[in-house]
Design goal:
single chain; alpha/beta; Rossmann fold; 2 domains; 7-stranded parallel β-sheet; 5-stranded mixed β-sheet; 12 helices; 14 strands; 15% strand; globular
């Protein structure tokens, strides 16, 4: 076959989150295979800069896109719509990363996508439950890819107390504080990283500096590739250690914390974390090599990207309008999340103020009552 020109589309390519990291990973692997890769994103930032440093073209404006391409790999609904209208003659696939964020749900309009890719069975069930999954197109099951050359080359960590890396982009201050305390109860030194705490541009480095990783989703696969023990726990739920026996069920759920009926209270969580075994990392690396190699993922992906479209694309005008509506919904969701975070912060401030006020009232009341108490004591 001859090299393809592949456009990878996503709305936001600025932060080091799951969708963005997937786009970075497959862009690099497709380029290594000799294909021309262009990443298009309306918003770019640090992760886009990393990709540019690898010699991969990243553009923000549609006017910078090539006139034609052979294949489109969209990461969200807005890019799927806009690129379908721009490239009606290309093979068009969409990767559905989430069953929660509707802006990442595959379009149900026929002609937008030729197939939808999912990377776990949970999201696969969601896509297939849609009234017209991806517009009635095939659903392709793949696995979450990780660059084995990037992760796992640093070997075992030596010296110092056992270190637990708590890695996640949805950690509230309260949850971070709770996990910090639980790790210390288990005899572990906690290190907390993520978008809401300390953002990480190179997770392979912080993973190499830890003995075990606690989190959800993609960071679990990265921990496995990095030869580290991996504990599935986060905002959605808690499924415990990844082992040779538990892997199939946890991977089917996308390491999302909802694969089992386990309920971890503070004491049980501490007890389970204390059961860390350094050999878990070696087993995890074997599993990651066999099931999550990004090079093998790219080879399979090329097979799905070959060939022309199987559906007639919507007109550019229709596609652009639908993309605009999806972007508007995404903006509304972002504002809602910001408002909820602000409400949470204000509640915390109010609680602290009430505690301070109550303590002052107590001190003032005690001082005012002291002379009366002294008189009463004398009379006794």
């Amino acid at each position: 076959m001859t090299g393809m020109r592949i456009v990878i589309g996503l709305e936001d390519f600025s932060s080091f989150a799951g969708t963005e990291t997937y786009a970075r990973t497959v862009a690099a692997e497709l380029q290594r295979l000799g294909h021309e890769v262009i990443v298009h994103a309306a918003t770019t930032g640090p992760i886009a800069d990393q990709v540019r440093e690898q010699g991969i073209e990243v553009v923000e404006s549609e006017t910078e896109l090539p006139a034609t391409c052979d294949a489109v790999l969209s990461q969200d609904a807005a890019s799927a719509f806009s690129l379908a209208g721009r490239y009606p003659g290309a093979r068009r696939l969409m990767v559905c990363h989430s069953d929660y964020f509707m802006s990442q749900s595959p379009p149900q309009l026929p002609g937008v996508c030729d197939a939808v890719i999912v990377m776990n069975d949970r999201v696969g069930r969601f896509v297939e439950s849609l009234g017209s999954p991806g517009g009635g197109v095939p659903v392709i099951r793949m696995t979450q890819p990780v660059d084995l050359k990037r992760f796992g080359v640093r070997g075992k960590r030596t010296g110092g107390p056992r270190r637990a890396l708590i890695l996640g982009n949805y950690l509230t201050p309260d949850r971070a504080s709770d996990l910090d305390a639980v790790c210390r109860q288990a005899g572990l030194e906690p290190v907390i990283r993520g978008a809401t705490t300390t953002p990480v541009a190179n997770p392979e480095q912080v993973i190499a500096d830890a003995d075990l990783v606690i989190g959800l989703g993609r960071c679990i696969v990265e921990a496995m590739a990095g030869r580290r023990a991996a504990f599935v726990h986060g905002i959605a739920g808690s499924d415990g250690w990844v082992t040779a026996d538990s892997y199939a069920a946890l991977e089917s759920d996308g390491f999302g914390g909802t694969a089992t009926d386990l309920v971890h209270d503070r004491d049980r969580l501490a007890a389970d974390l204390a059961g860390w075994d350094p050999e878990m990392g070696a087993v995890n690396r074997q599993i990651a090599t066999g099931r999550h190699d990004s090079a093998a993922h790219a080879v399979e992906l090329v097979g799905h990207l070959c060939g022309g479209p199987t559906n007639s694309a919507p007109s550019p005008e229709q596609a652009d309008e639908l993309a605009r509506l999806v972007r508007a919904e995404r903006l509304s969701w972002s504002r809602y999340v910001e408002a909820m975070n602000e409400v949470r912060a204000l509640r915390d401030e109010l609680g602290q103020a009430e505690e301070l006020l109550d303590s002052r009232r107590y001190r003032i009341g005690s001082r005012l009552a002291a002379p009366i108490d002294a008189i009463r004591n004398r009379r006794r």
